[in-house]
Amino acid sequence: xxxxxxxxxxxxxxxxxxxxxxxxxxxxxxxxxxxxxxxxxxxxxxxxxxxxxxxxxxxxxxxxxxxxxxxxxxxxxxxxxxxxxxxxxxxxxxxxxxxxxxxxxxxxxxxxxxxxxxxxxxxxxxxxxxxxxxxxxxxxxxxxxxxxxxxxxxxxxxxxxxxxxxxxxxxxxxxxxxxxxxxxxxxxxxxxxxxxxxxxxxxxxxxxxxxxxxxxxxxxxxxxxxxxxxxxxxxxxxxxxxxxxxxxxxxxxxxxxxxxxxxxxxxxxxxxxxxxxxxxxxxxxxxxxxxxxxxxxxxxxxxxxxxxxxxxxxxxxxxxxxxxxxxxxxxxxxxxxxxxxxxxxxxxxxxxxxxxxxxxxxxxxxxxxxxxxxxxxxxxxxxxxxxxxxxxxxxxxxxxxxxxxxxxxxxxxxxxxxxxxxxxxxxxxxxxxxxxxxxxxxxxxxxxxxxxxxxxxxxxxxxxxxxxxxxxxxxxxxxxxxxxxxxxxxxxxx
Length: 494
Fold this sequence. Notes:
By secondary structure, this protein is an alpha/beta fold. Helix content is 33%, strand content 23%. The protein has 18 helices and 21 strands. Strands 1, 2, 3, 4, 5, 19, 20 and 21 form an 8-stranded mixed β-sheet that branches. Strand 7 (72-73), helix 2 and strand 8 (99-105) form a beta-alpha-beta unit. Helix 10 (306-322) runs parallel beside helix 11. The longest helix has 18 residues, at 178-195.
């Protein structure tokens, strides 16, 4: 197999001396300075595109995102009336669907600046069960008939956060059969490829004790066109070990989100008299992480506010001193960091798994971060350059469905951080989604580089990301996985 007619990104730059890549058994066997005179019918012509090592998204909710791509996208609804019309029309088009998923909801984009009322929700699809999720995934609403079905729910609040938010959203997911789950992952894979990704980390489970669907998907990964790296999203260490997983966690929560005022902060929010919420005690995390560490499981914990990051990293740091192992425990999101906290993360050898698009969405002057935290703390959010300059191998992700799986947007956001002190170079940005992300899953000798012996994964774009580019004009032209072309861009087609 010969892959040719492209600009190949080799270890930090486009190497114009490399004209083709030879592939054997799914691996790169040679970098060629000349295209062979005779090409067989299987040769892949990349039509002059810019070919990067396959990009890796290190943190996604692909089951949720896959389901929601089949539901109602509420992005940029101007008002409650439009929101109601979108949900009602979708429900009418899905008369045989018992479940209706509405997502990407942001009350701040509405003229009314509020969630719908319970009455407004209940009148939209009275014969179906409706779940409406806020864009950050940390708040939701559901129809009264759905509330009546979920007997374990105790809260009477119309807007659900914290544990109740997780409970009801996971209840909706558990109502899906295996084939619907696979359909959701197929849809998610299409989104990933269109966004430029060949490998995606994803969580499966209820963030409590269930890893529902994990074993099923584990057995059927070869049905999917991209590579999924699975996380049993659970506190059930025994179940993770029994399933043969080398890791546990994902969005097991140390705190909530800035948008929902539930990220745990050392100082109060600027716009509300609260410091957010630490969802578990120090003793809980110490017991759980220590047990996982002793069983050689990599741990991944959601922590956004500085109090939550410190709570989790303190355990990582203690374990690294007492029982050092190369597990590469994860700090998912790792948004609000002081200089002191960055030094502690370096000492613990934890890996921040961060979302560059968060800054693009919420980091601008008068944006969400500044509204919630004030301008000084807004500058301490998503400190990519400070972490990387400290020698910490930051990994990139989208948190999809929260922000798009879009590599051009992600790289743009890293290069153009709202705080000039936290901007990184294009090469560092590409490393964040290639070499660094391969290292996270202990795949640094398999993924993340175009070199002999590495898996022949290529993300081919129509743009050179090392030079100024308009991310909205960038397109993924091809995805090559293990030497096989699995995606080609078609105009006006997803």
